[in-house]
Design brief:
The chain has helices spanning about 1-5, 55-65, 75-90, 105-110, 115-125, 150-155, 185-195; strands at about 40, 45-50, 95-100, 130, 135, 160, 170-180, 200-205. The strands form two sheets. A six-stranded mixed β-sheet has the order 1-2-8-7-3-4. The chain has a two-stranded antiparallel ribbon with strand order 5-6. Strand 7 (about 170-180), helix 7 and strand 8 (about 200-205) form a beta-alpha-beta unit. The protein has a single domain (about 10-205), classed as Rossmann fold. The protein has seven helices and eight strands, in the order αββααβααββαββαβ. With about 210 residues, the chain is of the alpha/beta class.
Length: about 210
């Protein structure tokens, strides 16, 4: 771990300057953290909390994390996620944190699962259990270019619960990097509810 931090130091999410691992950004970029988290009820009825709007420096930070090999950003994003979960879900004690699973083909194409890394580190910070609960049974089309109706149809029955899991009456928080219509998150939540979950909520970096 020490060698890894030396070779791949933590960097400010917004200007990419090297920073201590317990800070989400450098002092010059603190202004970008002064944003009220967004807590909304999606059309599906599930609640989602997001740290930022998906634009400007916040959008660029997620894209660097997701596509440009800035794996170490999971540490900084987890600090932010830990804080907004404590503020916005202070009335819920979650049994498990989990994440939207990628298809196996995407896992092979990318060197890391950015959402899983984020969820696991946030679980560690919040002293909560991270548990893989879902898998993607078939690869769906990319959601970003589809309409809301097409997104819902695109993810229908794509996600399935892992065999032999017991989540009866459990409170579960699902992580993703960005939410647009919420169709992907809602499809995952529907499967968990079908499998016996008591309450399912969402948290994402950007909205």
């Amino acid at each position: 771990m020490i060698i890894s931090r030396f070779l791949f130091p933590c960097r400010c999410l917004f200007c990419d300057k090297v920073i201590p691992s317990d800070k989400p950004c450098c002092n010059n970029c603190l202004k970008y953290l002064n944003i009220t988290p967004h807590k909304k009820v999606l059309p599906s009825g599930y609640t989602c909390v997001s740290a930022f709007i998906h634009e400007g420096v916040h959008r660029k930070a997620v894209l660097r994390y997701k596509y440009r090999q800035h794996k170490q950003y999971y540490i900084q994003f987890a600090i932010i996620m830990s804080n907004i979960i404590s503020k916005c879900y202070d009335d819920i004690s979650f049994d498990y944190y989990t994440s939207v699973p990628p298809h196996k083909q995407k896992t092979n194409e990318r060197p890391y699962d950015q959402v899983k890394l984020l969820a696991k580190e946030t679980a560690r910070l919040n002293k909560t259990v991270y548990k893989p609960l879902l898998y993607q049974a078939e690869k769906s089309k990319s959601q970003h270019s589809l309409s809301r109706e097409e997104r819902i149809a695109n993810v229908k029955d794509v996600y399935q619960c892992i065999d032999n899991i017991d989540i009866t009456d459990k409170n579960i928080l699902i992580f993703d990097d960005v939410v647009t219509t919420g169709s992907t998150l809602s499809a995952c939540a529907d499967k968990l509810i079908e499998h016996g979950a008591g309450n399912v909520c969402f948290v994402t970096i950007n909205w």
